[in-house]
Structures are given as C-alpha cells and as structure tokens.
C-alpha cells in the first residue's frame, strides 16, 4: 500500500469520526438550549462528510453497488464475529459492565445489518420496497414499521424507534 493510500484512509477515518462526534455535540447543544451552536456543529459535521467521501473516493474504495454490498456484509460480519466479541471480553475482564453491555447491543445489531445487506444483495434485481426503522438506543434496524412491544436487542420501548429517510 502506498503512503498516499495510507494517508487517504487515515484522513477518511479522522473525518468520519469528526462527523459523528460533531453530530453528538449538536444533540447535546440542542438539549442544553443552544440551537445556534447545534447548527454550527451540524454544518461542520456535514463538511467533514464531504471530506470523508472525497478521501474514500480518491482511495478507490467506492465500488459499484454489488461490490459495496459485499464490502458492507464483510465489514458487518467482521464486527459481529471478531471485533465486538473481543471488545466485550476485554470490557468484562476490566469490570466495565456498561461498555460490555453496549458492545453487546452493537454486536447484535451488526449481525442484523449483515443479514439485511445479504437479503438486499440476494434480491438486487427485484428488491422489495420497504421502510427501515432504527432503535435510537442500540442501533437495531427493523424492516417496516416497528410494531413490537420492545426492541429485540436492548428492550427499548417502541417510541425509541424512528423512520430512516
């Protein structure tokens, strides 16, 4: 791998993390009654997304839709089979119960994501039109309106679900 490619991927990671961090900061600012600060955080987050997408594109890491679905399946599968189990083990060994619990939520959600991507890949030429709803607590993604009593991963109430646009 060339140094430039390494740099592009490092920049992609950094810009991606900045985007997510600034969106979290915006939510906190809104909660504290600072709408203008929240607006600035969201504007910067959007700019960081522009940077991240440019770095990923320049690194040649955006393929056609089939390749992107396969990459997403591989990434989500790695997370639920390897990454999160190891993180859960470390957190439990260190007595970090809250972190271990949330890693567990994410682990289960990533498995669902891999399954949804595989389902879409299998039906790529004839996909079923469906809306998706996410649990705002654990990131579980549900096909169609959520009509359960509680989130199957974290137990959150139905009001925790929102439609993804």
């Amino acid at each position: 791998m060339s140094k430039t490619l390494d740099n592009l991927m490092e920049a992609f990671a950094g810009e991606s993390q900045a985007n997510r961090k600034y969106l979290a900061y915006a939510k906190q600012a809104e909660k504290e009654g600072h709408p203008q600060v929240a607006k600035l955080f969201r504007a910067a987050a959007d700019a960081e997304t522009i940077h991240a997408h440019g770095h990923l594109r320049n690194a040649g890491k955006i393929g056609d839709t089939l390749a992107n679905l396969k990459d997403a399946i591989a990434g989500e599968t790695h997370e639920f089979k390897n990454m999160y189990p190891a993180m859960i083990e470390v957190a439990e060994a260190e007595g970090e119960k809250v972190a271990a619990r949330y890693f567990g939520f994410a682990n289960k959600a990533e498995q669902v994501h891999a399954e949804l991507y595989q389902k879409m890949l299998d039906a790529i030429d004839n996909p079923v039109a469906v809306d998706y709803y996410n649990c705002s607590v654990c990131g579980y993604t549900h096909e169609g309106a959520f009509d359960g009593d509680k989130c199957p991963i974290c137990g959150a109430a139905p009001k925790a679900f929102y439609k993804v646009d």
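The mean pLDDT is 97. The helical segments are 3-31, 35-58, 65-93, 97-122.
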